[in-house]
Request: fold
Amino acid sequence: MKSLAVVSLLVFFVSLNAVACSAPPPGYSMNHKVLIKSTETIVLAKTIKVTDKVVVFEVLESIKGESEKEFFWRRSRLSKSVKHISTDFNRHSEPAFWSSEQLVRRSPISKGGICNIVFTYELGEVYLVFRESWGNAHSNEIIKSNDDKWLTFVKKAVASGL
Reply:
């Protein structure tokens, strides 16, 4: 009887960890086309304030939907050991970025798993932000040039009514 109680308690505590995230964050695991179609607000935005607690963006261009000129996001606290990943995947021309079989992302793997997508930001960098789909690995991509392949793809998709 005692061993049954111990096993029951063990199963209970393991199941708590398994259901700690009742649903993945918005946008999680969407492919690029679904991400674009299902996100109401997509903007090209520059970071104008970056702290441990908040990131403030200035909208440079509204690509889909309407957005205020500035908006902010609260941040998960990052460990001091997490370094900013300032990659644009060679203007998003690297095949791995476009692969449906291999997930590449500039956000570090978080201790919170899929429930805690953590992106790093650098003051003054420009990002393609999918505001309502923040849980997607490609929802906060760095854009370093106007001829970036991801930016071009998103603009064409939106213009075509996707």
Notes: The domain at 25-159 is CATH 2.40.50 (OB fold (Dihydrolipoamide Acetyltransferase, E2P)).
